[in-house]
Amino acid sequence: MLLDAHLILAGFRSYATYRAATIAGLFTNIVFGFLRGAILLAAIRQAGDIGGYSTTDALAYVWLTQGLIAVIAIWNWNELALRIESGDIATDLTRPIDPQRYWLARDFGRAAYALCIRGIGPVAVGFVLFDVTVPPDVWQWMSFVVSVALAVWISFGLRFIVNLAPIWLRDWRGALIVSNVLATLMSGFLMPIAWFPHWARVVMHALPWAGTTQAPIDVFLGKASGPSGIATIGLQAAWGFALFVCGRFALIAGTRKLVVHGG
Amino acid sequence: MNVVETHGLTKNFVVYERNGLIRRTREVRTAVADVSFSVAAGEMVGYVGPNGAGKSTTVKILTGILVPDAGTCSVAGFVPHKRRLELARRIGVVFGQRSNLWWDLPLIESFDLLRHLYRVDHQKHQANLDECVERLALEDVLKTPVRQLSLGQRMRGELTAALLHGPTVLFLDEPTIGLDVVSKAAVRDFLADLNRDRNTTVLLTTHDLDDIERLCKRLLIIDHGTVIYDGGLNELRDEYEPYRTLVVDLVTSGSPLAIDGAETVKVDGPRQWLRFHRDRYSASELINRVGEVAEIRDLTIEEPDIESVVAKIYTRQT
Asked: For A55-66, how does the pLDDT look when each residue is reduced to its tens digit (9 = 90+)?
């Protein structure tokens, strides 16, 4: 555990080096928060509550998802894929640590740093400027924190598998694009899953992407509370574990097939 | 006792080549074929070969990164690909073209993280670190992020990173690539001291034969995936380049010297180059012979440099 704590800290510090990128990302997340908020409000004002989302729910949803972007990092993370492609993975494999454990700890460090600025920043702006739904009690807040941590775990599980693609595919960037599209559509980021038709909702809630975005939002807004809250968090934990196991098998298969060219 | 042992080690890679829009052909290329050698504890062995010969592939198999298709190997008592994590604690690896350090972190933080990764006792870590920092003159750059280090500084950092846990075997894959003469000398001196003082076994892969000449008594040459020479440096010279050259500056210019058993290959004013077989003459004998027919002002003996010997071997193979 001590080792994991050090790796998390190292991940945090590595990402903390890029301050200008953090500020630029924060600014972008806030600007898009205003845009998305305006679009969702316009829709709700036209159609009334959609899928059980009031105006204050919709605004909380927008600013929370804007804050979650960098924390869960469901798009474009390709650090591991690049190391496999360049062959730098060779040095990771000479260390006395399981690569999956190493990258997970590092990712929690990355997420912790993202939370401090790009996570809290947009949420603070949105929550100060607008009237938004806020959890009524400390349990709901705590459930939300657990749900966000599980969201990072699920997101890592998905990204880890996609990032192993270069072991088998020369054109792994295609796999990354597919992964980005799925994450956008299925996570509940594009619009709340509750706004989709019934059949789509059932499918989307059951898949892991919902666990990265929609699940923490539902817990925060109280749309998943009591038994349904436990079920939501339980499903997140189940997906986190299942993806971790899948990642492990992929890694075992991959290291047997690994090719490291040059040097 | 042998620290590294391989028997019939073979590794193939599958390469697909596109023929037209969709069709592609599958080709199996052998990177390492039937490689067998052993390295005794405390030995420092040079492992050389042209690009694509299979050197790095061998090192990657020996460090557990790649799984061999055939043959067996053991390093520090472990089968590398089966016990990679345990083996990692016993070996140090430096890939000259890759980094073991954390790009975004100051050097000292990388070292600290490695201490936790390798679970090294704090005192032992500090003692190893102090020694490396002093010998490799790293004091001034410990707080500098790795991405801001010069290549020479980084390579000294890489060596330190590979040694902090006190490995019994060190695999160095082109550790002096791209370094200036001063940095190269510093790295070579350090490695020589390390081998002498700690009895660390070293397998040194390099294209820089000066590294080998200064550090290794034994040389393994690999080409097309096969070990084609395994022996001492002097024996290599004897076997592949048995000729030496005596360069004499005579007091007066004259016609080429005619000495039985030696060939005058070049004349430049009073200076003449005589090529002779090392089994036919000792240098002093030939000097005496020359002294009998001409007055010598100065002389030097040129040994064939190892680079030209190895180049000859590579060329013969192709």
From this structure: 999 999 999 999
Residue B286 distance to chain A (closest CA, Å)? 46
Asked whether residue A263 is domain-assigned, the answer is: no
CATH number, domain of B265, equals 3.30.70
Contact B174 A95 (CB under 8 A): no
Inter-chain contact A94–B88, Cβ cutoff 8 Å?
A: yes
Closest Cβ opposite residue A6 in set B91, B95, B116: B116
Domain boundary residue, one of B203, B237, B271: B237
Instruction: Answer yes or no: is pLDDT of B260 > 70.
Output: yes
Q: pLDDT of B112-146, one tens digit each?
A: 999 999 999 999 999 999 999 998 989 999 999 99
Chain A partners of B118 at a C-beta cutoff of 8 Å? 96
Kindly state whether residue A262 falls inside one of the protein's structural domains: no
Q: What is the per-residue pLDDT across A232-248, written as a single tens digit (0 to 9) for each?
A: 999 999 999 999 999 99
B287 and B230 in a common domain: no
Chain B residues touching A6 at Cβ < 8 A: 112-113, 116
Q: What is the 3-state secondary structure (H, E, C) of chain A?
A: CHHHHHHHHHHHHHHHCCHHHHHHHHHHHHHHHHHHHHHHHHHHHHHCCECCECHHHHHHHHHHHHHHHHHHCCCCCCHHHHHHHHCCHHHHCCCCCCHHHHHHHHHHHHHHHHHHHHHHHHHHHHHHHCCCCCCCCHHHHHHHHHHHHHHHHHHHHHHHHHHCHHHCCCCHHHHHHHHHHHHHHHCCCCCCHHHCCHHHHHHHHHCHHHHHCHHHHHHHHCCCCCHHHHHHHHHHHHHHHHHHHHHHHHHHHHHHHCCCCCC
- B211 touching A, CB under 8 A? no
Instruction: Flag the least confident range among A67-76, A172-181, B206-215, B291-300.
Output: B206-215
**Least confident segment among A129-138, B11-20, B154-163:** B11-20
Q: Tell me if chain B has a CB within 8 Å of the CB of A7.
A: yes
> What domain range includes position B288?
243-317
